[in-house]
Amino acid sequence: MLLLDTGDDEDAWEDVLWRMGELPGVQDPSPGPAADAGRGTAVPRRLLVAHDTAWRGATAEEAAAAPDRPGVWVPDLVVLTDERTERHPDIRPLPAFRGGDAFWITPRQAAMTYLVPHRPHLGFAFDDFATWGPLDLDRESVDEGDEERYGPVGAEPEKRDAPPRYTRPARELPALLQDTDLLVRTDFGDDAAWAALVEPVHRPPHSDVIDDFGPYLRFVDDPAFAGATPEQVMTQLRFGDGEDVSDVLLIADAVTLSAPGKPMLAVPLTEDIGLTFLVEPEEVGTMIANLGVGNQGLEDWRDRTVRGGA
Questions:
Q1: Residue 222 has what DSSP assignment?
Q2: How far, CA to CA in Å, does 79 sit from each of 62, 98, 108, 132?
């Protein structure tokens, strides 16, 4: 990813950087030895942050065309600050470009997407972004009516009471191969509570679909993930070569294991990437089965309770 500062509001720029979090693989594009891109993460990443006065006042068209030269590194996504970023401090929208697609995106949504850049078929998510928050490069400005109508993508996570934000883990975490659906335990204070969660996930009562969902879901019970945030777990995902990969990551954290009913976090890995919602243990099997065969999409589950409120 390439992040450009084309505005002149230092407060807006610092706010954008804070919302994006302590992302792995951040580099200053100034001359000098290249930094280690994403050390401690499962997949190398590179985020070039260009805070250079030479870009002040650059147009969206100039930013989109900058990498389009022979021998120039072409990022998967280019995002930049502009006057609209400064005008909306509640969500800090950013113009974004990927190939021929142009759309508006918020800093947190850009950061969550950056955590899974290697995911198979991620291009479909960018296609959706271009549909949900289209950016018209042929227009010199965006009027207030279009701002209300078209987005940007990721406005909801910016407005949550507990919005997603990546922070560096205190220690290196192991990689996770997502060759099937994963339920990752991140709290290890109550083994009995974990066992009480696993059983209804394995064998949900009153299920008329499958008696045992164990073969379709891998339970990651590794103390190395103690205290890990959903964003940190996302960063450790590796994806196999198969066409069928899960659209969601499941997390059992301290709140899950101490709450009545033990609802766990479901973390979307497509569309609203990283925007968590809650799912009951008895419903997990039904969800992953229907997502797997295409009977349902994440939109059928995302409108359920979210932790932290919207």
A1: -
A2: 12, 9, 12, 16
What is the distance between the alpha carbons of residues 30 and 5, in angstroms, rounded to a whole number?
14
* CA-to-CA separations, 46 to 23, 26, 119, in angstroms, rounded: 9, 6, 15
Pick from 68, 95, 116: nearest CA to 5: 95
Tens digit of pLDDT at every position of the chain (310 positions): 999 999 889 999 999 999 999 999 988 766 554 555 555 577 888 899 988 888 888 877 787 777 777 777 788 899 999 888 999 999 999 999 887 788 999 999 999 999 988 888 888 888 889 988 888 754 445 555 555 556 799 998 898 888 999 999 999 999 998 888 999 999 999 999 999 999 888 887 766 666 677 777 899 999 999 999 999 999 999 887 665 678 899 999 999 999 888 999 999 998 789 989 999 998 888 888 888 777 887 878 776 655 554 3
- Spatial separation of the C-alpha atoms in residues 155 and 229, rounded to whole Å: 21
Tokens found for residue 197: 């969660």
C-alpha pair distances (Å), 57 with each of 65, 66, 77, 120, 148:
15, 14, 20, 36, 24
Alpha-carbon torsion angle 209, 214, 220, 223, nearest 10? 120
Contacts of range 257-262, beta carbons closer than 8 Å, 24 or more positions apart: 257/187, 257/189, 257/190, 257/193, 257/194, 257/197, 258/190, 258/193, 262/193, 262/196, 262/197
Q: Which 8-state DSSP code applies to residue 96?
A: E
Q: How far apart are CA 75 and CA 291, in angstroms?
A: 31
Structure tokens at 17: 């950087």
How far from chain centre, in Å, is Cα 233? 11
Whether the Cβ atoms of residue 68 and residue 100 lie closer than 8 Å to each other: no
Task: Say if pTM beats, i.e. exceeds, 0.85.
Answer: yes
